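Lab notebook, design round three. We kept the backbone fixed and only want residue identities now. Task for the bench partner: fill in a sequence for the structure below.
Input structure tokens:
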């Protein structure tokens, strides 16, 4: 089943919105991207030296390039998160990883393996590294 992005755009996650867990932040990310508020979201959760590795045409992005790219990208209209996992990497580091299908308005849908590393800074979990690796699969809509 494909999640219609607008159905999840305003769902809250977690008991303490002031200090969300890495998993909660990850889900908030997709809701923000679906609502066309991705740049504002990333501005609040990316560390200054964050790196994002995404498929062409972008490749590796710094924090500011990410904010600019996301601000100009069409919103996500549908997405599905599959096989979600998370692991502590230490007291101040955490990784979440999963597969997902996403379709942006006006573009073809894509499958990707996603991984995001979070670090705890100033008593907050923040994104340090985010990677999207394309996967070859049929469309979720065909399933």
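Proposed sequence:
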């Amino acid at each position: 089943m494909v999640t219609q992005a607008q159905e999840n755009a305003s769902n809250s996650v977690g008991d303490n919105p002031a200090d969300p867990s890495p998993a909660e932040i990850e889900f908030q990310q997709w809701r923000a991207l679906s609502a066309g508020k991705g740049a504002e979201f990333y501005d609040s959760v990316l560390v200054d030296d964050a790196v994002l590795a995404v498929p062409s045409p972008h490749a590796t992005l710094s924090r500011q390039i990410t904010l600019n790219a996301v601000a100009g990208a069409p919103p996500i209209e549908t997405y599905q998160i599959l096989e979600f996992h998370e692991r502590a990497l230490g007291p101040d580091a955490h990784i979440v990883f999963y597969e997902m299908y996403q379709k942006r308005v006006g573009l073809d849908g894509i499958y990707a393996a996603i991984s995001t590393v979070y670090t705890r800074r100033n008593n907050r979990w923040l994104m340090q590294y985010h990677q999207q690796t394309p996967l070859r699969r049929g469309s979720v809509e065909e399933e």
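Keep this in mind before ordering anything: The first strand starts at residue 3 and ends at 4.
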